[in-house]
C-alpha cells in the first residue's frame, strides 16, 4: 500500500477529540465506546507506541508514516471485550469525527489529521452515565422535618443542588426519603463517601440513584421508578488501603488504556443478597464470618463486609475472578450460606458501579487521611507516655529493692566493706558449702595476751 508522509505539524485541538462530536447528536453506546478508544490510541502520548507496535507486527509495510491498521486496533483487549470490529473503527471515525482521521484507499487503515491530548479522568467521570446523573437517594429523613431546611443544609455543606424530589407523604411512616440531583458530580461523590450523616438528631443514609422522571396525566404528577437501580455503595474496598494511584496495566494494554478504567482493581467484587438478617437469627458479625467461610471454599477472600441494617453483603477476592465465580455458582442457583436455607444470588460488580466505587474510595481516603494521621500521632504519644511510666515504675521498684537489702545487712562497727565482702555475699546465695566457708572467714580470730601487749605498746612510739 502506498502511503503519504505525515505532515510535519498537525493542528492541535485544545478541547480534545470529543469536542469534534457534533452537539445534539445522540450517539449509540458502541460508537461512544469507539470514540473513547480512538481518543486513547491516537492521543499525543500514545501515538508513538501504537505506530511502533504496528511496525513491529508488519515490518514490510509503511506504517511508520502514521498509518495504523484498523485490525490492530480491534486486536487490543479493550476492543475485544466490547466486540468491536475493524470496520466499526473506520465507520465511526468518518461519521462521528469529521476531519479528525484519514482513511486509506483500501479502507483498512486510519491516520490522524489533528493532534490532541487524551481526555483526563475527571472529564471521563463527568461524562459517564451514572456520574453524570449526579443524583443520590437520601433515606431516614424525619417526617416532620421542613423540606427546604433539609435541602438548604445539604446545599450549604456538600454542594449546589440542581433539583430535588421528596417521596409522597405517608402518615403511617416515621421517616421520608428524597432524591437530590447536584450540579457537580463531585458533590455526589463527596456525599456518598460519608455514607450517612446526622440531621435533627436522626441518622440518614445515602445511596446512589437516578432522578425519577415525572409525567403529567390529568393534571396529576405520576412518579415513574428510576431507570437505574438504587445501589448501596458501602463497598468493601472503599476503606481498604490498597494503592490505586497507578493504573492496573493488563496484558496487551498500555498504561493510558488502563487509565481509562480509572486504575481500580477489576473483577474482584461480588455482591450477594438480599438477606434478611433479622429472620436468620444471626448477628451481623456471625453472618459475616459464615459468609466468608463459604466463599473461602471457592477462592481466597481479601475481605467480607456485612453491615447492620443492610440486606446486601460484599466479598472482595484477592484475584480478579469475580465474574467467573458468579458464573460458576449461578449455574447452581447461587451459593448456600450454611443454615440460611435457600441459596443466595450473586452479582459481579463492574462497569459504572466499579467506577463510582473508585471515586467514592478516593474521597473516603482523602477525608479520612487527616483523621488517620491524628490518630497515629496520638497512638505514638500514648505509647511513649506508657513507656516512660513503666520505666519510672521499674526504676522505683529496683531502688526500693536495693534499700530493703541494705537495711537487712548487719552492722559492722569498725570494719570497712571490701570488694571481697561482696563476693562473699554472692557466694552465700549459692550452695551450702560456699555459705559455710564465707561464714568462717568472717569470724574474728582471738589473739593471746602477749600479742595484745605488743600491739598496745606500739601506740606510745
From TrEMBL:
Where in this protein does the record put region Disordered?
388-437
Domain of life per record: Eukaryota
Alphabetized GO MF terms? nucleic acid binding
User: Where is the sequence biased in composition, kind Basic residues?
Assistant: 388-398
Return the protein name. Answer: HTH La-type RNA-binding domain-containing protein
